[in-house]
């Protein structure tokens, strides 16, 4: 070997050494963030901390209100970090960052002991782009309620930026004498599909829904999330520096475990983990080398559920991610260890078999995801429960887990903020940390630590007290800052009546007949001295997210008049009330005549007539008014039927004025928020943000199949091929086995040619390329033809017996069904009574309406 070669080699080694030295002190960087800003707010000097972070001065990122004051903390913090300085202001200030496209973590760091400013006057909101991260945030209250004895607060969010967007983070004092402040901000990019769903993912890979309907729930790019919990099981927190490169910290779970359990640490640390099911940056190795189980011992474990209780804010959807890895030398085959998983007491896995999930490979981390809807008004704290129990058929009677992540998804208005905790009760005893967790673990094989049984953490206790206090108080929305102006409704007078709250009380006998809805209740009422029966939809008081839909619905509906569009009679918008008054629809909604119902089945002819009515209504929206109106939430639950069985399109909360026919609207922010109901959503719309009236055509196509098959468009318990009705129908159409999908109630009623024509038009609505889909006008034509053809075949088998189904008494059958998200009161599944599908569509699509 000649000397030049050696020189080059040593040069390269030197260069490599330099690289190593200059890189962070972070262990095993698996993912290198493209962007990493750590901002020491209020400081003009930079600061390096041992966790590998370089905190830089904030002034160059301040884009607004440069005269906010930098103020030093009262006591220099014992914790290393950006805590010794803070930026304060009595008026709004904004940081602006130029960052690349793609998802980012935003982290906010707070210390609440500082001088010059009164601690209890920190009361503010934080907004990042279109999302509200904190609202009316009382920093001292939050710091005090926190289990941490220090005055620190930490919040982490995930948001996804689009091309060319600057990320602006604004701090807005909530009242005149309050101020906003911040100690540290961090922005770190993350891999694009770590938490967000890949657009090409099959629905089987989407988070499984829990708590409501059965629709899988992709985490769309336009959602923002707040990290509520990132818990590893183990005896020590994993600090940011030990993460896979994104500076996430992993807390311990023991505060949230409420039953007996056993912790195993450093399992098989000699075996290399194989990241074949998840990317290697998903979590640090140590996460997968400790697990919590029940303390496997024969049938002893059958008597209880291994349980976690995680306090969360109600009124949001949560993404729950469970991490597993099988390293136990005693588990050799799939089935050796299998358990049940319950989320919110709902069985989500009846055969959780980690080895099975990882293709029989040991040491392969796997992640399971669930979308958990926690109904409520955003003012309460509730527990999200996770329970595990051995499957009796499993060889080993145990259950195990390695880590739990829980994210809150923004609501339809882009809000992520929950309520402040209530003040601690006077003289409440100071809480002591439950477990000192500075024991260092160093066993090499399985080492077990008995964990606390039935511990109750201070946070949980506090939130429980908080709820008691809440109950005693009169909850009013008109707190400082939240009061609503009532003059901002621009409804052309004469088009739509205005009712006073007094009239509404009279009409409903003081809101007597309640049918619980999600954001509102629906009542049957009588106006004009009892001469007119109406449906009265009362939005929940203080439902901030409701205002936008409320206005939208009034503004849209008051201008529309068509026999196939539901009529809005008027509204009431007074003090805290938002009420909509509609014509009463005796026969309820279409879905309630198709499935999950006790109502008699609708005949084929009636179904066809209904579809034609809906198609006419949609055609009117698309072509009959000055501007194209895109409904965006066409589905059977939003089709109402009057006493003559005339179909009417309802629920215009999501409707949008479109561009000229066929021209997509995708430029302004408001239009790029994908909304609608999962199962009916146009893929072109949710994948590529292209919204045209053809998105309604798509949803209408799904509805046609729903009508034909009498089932929900997505049934996740069905075998994969049948899970999505649209895919199943395509498949059957291609195979020529269309009769498979036909509702068994319709057998013998449909003439084969009609079935073909009907299916063809339905499937043409579902074409991937929107421009290829027919217009509603064309569809009306085809469906009318199908109906005529069917009529001409009256004698086809025994259709006559069906077409005479007595339909006139629908109002008895459906109780007093009134509007789409109203009545489910006739003794069907509890979950439907409490949370109608319509609300589901809102919670499922938490981006603003
Ligand atoms: C922090 O600064 C040090 C010294 O300037 C540098 O070596 C290191 O790479 C920086 N770390 C990051 C994360 O930028
Ligand atoms: C992580 O996975 C990527 C892609 O599979 C691979 O290129 C990389 O070497 C892995 N990193 C480590 C530290 O194993
Ligand atoms: C930093 O700020 C302090 C106080 O605001 C000031 O005294 C000092 O001169 C500043 N240093 C630099 C380098 O600007
Ligand atoms: C962010 O702030 C910058 C600077 O103030 C401003 O030019 C830009 O329009 C803002 N961007 C957004 C999306 O609000
Ligand atoms: C914030 O909480 C403190 C108690 O920690 C209280 O004294 C103060 O009034 C609260 N501020 C506001 C604006 O509610
Ligand atoms: C199970 O527990 C019982 C009582 O605690 C104990 O006697 C027995 O040895 C345990 N069995 C195993 C397999 O650990
Ligand atoms: C475990 O939890 C589920 C869901 O709440 C419940 O149905 C079951 O009875 C529980 N099992 C035991 C043994 O407590
Ligand atoms: C949440 O769970 C904890 C522990 O079981 C319990 O103490 C607390 O009361 C629960 N909170 C609510 C709101 O149910
Ligand atoms: C609180 O509620 C009670 C009973 O509903 C009512 O009499 C009282 O006026 C309310 N107080 C406020 C401040 O709204
Ligand atoms: C809001 O409406 C109420 C009752 O109609 C009225 O008394 C009040 O003056 C209105 N407020 C505003 C700001 O218009
Ligand atoms: C309702 O009845 C009252 C008194 O009976 C009458 O004055 C009023 O005109 C009636 N209103 C309507 C809308 O019929």
Automatic annotation (TrEMBL):
Span list, region Disordered: 412-442, 798-829
GO molecular function annotation: ATP binding; protein kinase activity; protein serine/threonine kinase activity; transmembrane receptor protein tyrosine kinase activity
Sequence ranges of Polar residues compositional bias: 798-820
Domain of life of the native organism: Eukaryota
Name of the featured protein: Protein kinase domain-containing protein
Main location (coarse class): membrane
GO BP term, pick one: response to metal ion
Keywords for the protein's UniProt record, in alphabetical order: ATP-binding, Glycoprotein, Kinase, Membrane, Nucleotide-binding, Serine/threonine-protein kinase, Signal, Transferase, Transmembrane, Transmembrane helix
Species per Swiss-Prot/TrEMBL record: Glycine max
GO cellular component terms, semicolon-separated: plasma membrane
UniProt cross-references to Pfam families, sorted A to Z: Malectin_like, PK_Tyr_Ser-Thr
Cited InterPro entries: ANXUR1/2-like (IPR045272), Kinase-like_dom_sf (IPR011009), Malectin-like_Carb-bd_dom (IPR024788), Prot_kinase_dom (IPR000719), Ser-Thr/Tyr_kinase_cat_dom (IPR001245), Ser/Thr_kinase_AS (IPR008271)
Membrane topology field: Single-pass type I membrane protein
Subcellular compartments: Membrane
Signal peptide location: 1-27
SMART domains (UniProt xref): S_TKc
Protein kinase domain: residues covered: 508-786
